[in-house]
Amino acid sequence: MRGISRLIVLFLIGAGLFYLVTEGDFNPQDAVKKVEKNLMTKDTEMESKSTPENFTDTIDLEGDLYSWIGDTSDKLIEELGEPVRKDSSPYGYDWWVYMDAQDKYIQFGIEDGQIVTMFATGNQLSIEPVQIGQSYQDVNSHFEFSNEVSVSEGLESYRFQLSDEELGVRPLVKLDKHTYMQLYFDTFTEKLSSVRVLSKDVLLKQRPYEIFYRGKLPEPPELSDEEWQEVQAGMEQQIFDITNVIRNRHKKSELSWDEPISEVALSHSKDMSDNNYFSHYSQNGEGLKDRLSEHDIYYFSAGENIAAQYTDGPAAVEGWLNSEGHREALLKDSYTHLGVGVYRYYYTQNFMEKP
């Protein structure tokens, strides 16, 4: 499942290596085995009767962001103007990206001229009755989060099953019969970090949680290598932008994009995907220090975040934010530059403090 994710963090300081782990000595192979052991959950086809609905048909929501789902791209341009850029996605829609410096960041997913999903983070966003930065307890009082979210349509029945951890980090709520919302929380502050609103079809294509179903699941389109290159480039830029939005929220300096570092990050993501492994160390034993040295990149300190099998770039960043070591890299004061490399569903961030 793409919704189940893997991530590890590595820091380099000068010529020394420092691994951030919660306890004990770090062994990359053991760490990967431990992570993979927790990734055995698979999509399961429902063989029993359909699952009853757990929510009322409609939740009364105010605020501009919710009203966009189902509207046209023409109306979006009329109201907000042309986007900063348009990025391809692996799910059949294109992201239209709107930014206001580092205070607002919104992606609208457009498919066949219609808005089918959106992701938003930053400050001063109209998402009543909740707000970015609001406490988990307050948001939960509006939606009453549940471990099960179900949808039935005709003879087809689907039930998303959320673990307790997922319920605390990214609960899913049903807004109406065809619209759902993921709420991403910063578990270190217990505050709302971002929101994603999805149509039913987009949610079923992404499948970010364990799913039990009866019927047929919609599948994302098959992409050519050229189409994947466009998707990957878009996700790299999204990860870079959202990282700076989060750093701004925590009063940290803005990072500059670094193309040579991005090439290093991309090569590592591709290597992990091609050779089916997940580690800071390649199969020949080389780590970040070696990869940077091979490209003659000089630095005072450097760090690396990696992740795999997240639905997209924004989800990967929110995952890093909720892991202590990755969070430290995201918010480290001394870093000045960032390179991002995405290959399929493998994600690498290389941070750097440069002269």
UniProtKB/TrEMBL annotation:
<dbReference type="InterPro" id="IPR029410">
    <property type="entry name" value="CAP_assoc"/>
</dbReference>
<dbReference type="Pfam" id="PF00188">
    <property type="entry name" value="CAP"/>
</dbReference>
<dbReference type="InterPro" id="IPR014044">
    <property type="entry name" value="CAP_dom"/>
</dbReference>
<feature type="domain" description="CAP-associated">
    <location>
        <begin position="69"/>
        <end position="209"/>
    </location>
</feature>
<feature type="domain" description="SCP">
    <location>
        <begin position="241"/>
        <end position="350"/>
    </location>
</feature>
<protein>
    <submittedName>
        <fullName>Uncharacterized conserved protein YkwD, contains CAP (CSP/antigen 5/PR1) domain</fullName>
    </submittedName>
</protein>
<dbReference type="InterPro" id="IPR035940">
    <property type="entry name" value="CAP_sf"/>
</dbReference>
<dbReference type="Pfam" id="PF14504">
    <property type="entry name" value="CAP_assoc_N"/>
</dbReference>
